[in-house]
Amino acid sequence: MVKDSLQLYLDTLVFTADIVTPIFILVFLGALLRRLAIVDDAFVGTASKLVFNLTLPVLVFMSINKTDIAAVLNPGTLIFTGIAILLLFVLLWFITGLTGMVAADRGAFIQGSFRSNYGIIGLAVSFNLFGTPGLAHASLLLALVIPLFNVLSIVALSLGQHQQDTPGPGIFKSILTNPLIIAVLLALPLAWLDIHPHALLQKSANYIASMTLPLALLTIGASLKLKELRACSGLALHASAFKLVWMPLLCLPVAYWIGFSGEDMTMLFVLLGCPTAAASFVMARAMGANATLAASIILVTTLGSVASLSTGIYLFKLWQWI
User: Fold this and answer.
1) Average pLDDT along the chain, 322 residues, taken 10 residues at a time
2) Can you give 104-126 as a three-state secondary structure string?
3) Which residues contact 89 (CB under 8 A, 6 or more apart)?
4) 3-state class of 276 per DSSP?
5) Cβ(243)–Cβ(303) below 8 Å
6) I need a labelling partner for 198 at 20 to 30 A (CA). Which of 103, 149, 209, 263 fits?
7) What's the rounded Cα separation, in Å, for the pair 200 and 179?
8) Which helix (H) or strand (E) holds 297?
């Protein structure tokens, strides 16, 4: 029995590592290219702008537009997920406000602590666990969290621009003019009405969207500076602990008490326990927050998620929820 349990955990660990390892490869490739002087600060700046203003908005639009919202609608899961993320964001806002963290660090810390890489890692894990039905379920959650994560990220990162503790006109303007929010506002009604771009436009858009993750990860690697990473290590570890450990621990018992179990509980765990999205670095850099801290959180959570996601999935299998 012990041998079977150990083998199950090792298999789960390998499964998770297979998903996150390519992320590290691209980050370290970016660092190597910078060391070889193949890329420089100009590349990082241009690539970040390209991702923030074009490729990421197109990715967001296509992800939402492809989702059959009516077919996979699950109000209970969506409502709980939305409320949980909002409450966690408020908790982070309150805690970081008490610490006296400077605005640029605070924005990057908050974003890195709650924003999941669900569109890449979450969908892959969900599909491998539950097949096509799981992918449909995860896609609906993605349609919810994409606008939610982006709006809350803009609010947090705008602290670095406006140096204030409460949302004001500057933050609302940042939200309404943000390319990601515009993409969401365009995609949601079209997805609901089942209206999709022409096949040629879809193919072109998919090419553009596919550049997002490689470019974002390469810029993270090219931006890495060991001295700056060490200076941010304490904050990065705290943010990563909140992202990978405290978010699931705070939300899952409540979900279980309400009546969640099986696939719904597993999906919620994967959403909350995914590492921080690579796009958080691009947004932090574009909006004047601490991009080095954002990069550190991405690296730590991606590495840590191999153990945390594997442990959670292993326990869910023991409890026969998967």
Assistant:
1) 69 80 85 90 87 86 75 75 94 89 90 88 80 73 82 81 53 72 84 85 91 86 72 85 94 91 86 89 86 89 87 82 68
2) HHHHHHHHHHHCECHHHHHHHHH
3) 110, 114, 152, 156
4) strand
5) no
6) 149
7) 22
8) helix 291-318
How does DSSP assign 3-37, residue by residue?
HHHHHHHHHHHHHHHHHHHHHHHHHHHHHHHHHTT
CA atoms lying within 13 Å on the CB side of residue 40: 2
Q: How far apart are the first and last CA of the chain?
A: 19
Is 9:302 a contact under the CB 8 Å cutoff? no
Check residue 104 and give its pLDDT. Answer: 86
State the Cα–Cα distance between residues 193 and 188, nearest whole angstrom: 9
Q: What is the pLDDT of residue 255?
A: 92
Q: In angstroms, what CA-CA distances link 219 with 46, 49, 161, 185?
A: 10, 11, 22, 28
The two tokens of residue 61 are: 């639009």
The 3-class secondary structure across 70-110, one letter per residue, is CCCCCHHHHHHHHHHHHHHHHHHHHHHHHHCCCHHHHHHHH
In contact, 112 and 280? CB cutoff 8 Å: yes
pLDDT of residue 246: 94
φ, ψ (nearest 5 deg) of residue 68:
-85, 85
Spatial distance between the Cα atoms of 35 and 22, rounded to a whole number of angstroms:
20
**Phi (first) and psi of residue 116, to 5 degrees:** -95, 150
State both tokens at 63: 């992800």
Alpha-carbon gap, residue 124 to 194, rounded angstroms:
24
Q: pLDDT value at position 83? A: 94
Q: Which residue has the tokens 């190597």?
A: 32
Tokens of 144: 């919810």
Residue 13 CA neighbour count, 13 Å, CB half: 10
Count of residues for the chain? 322
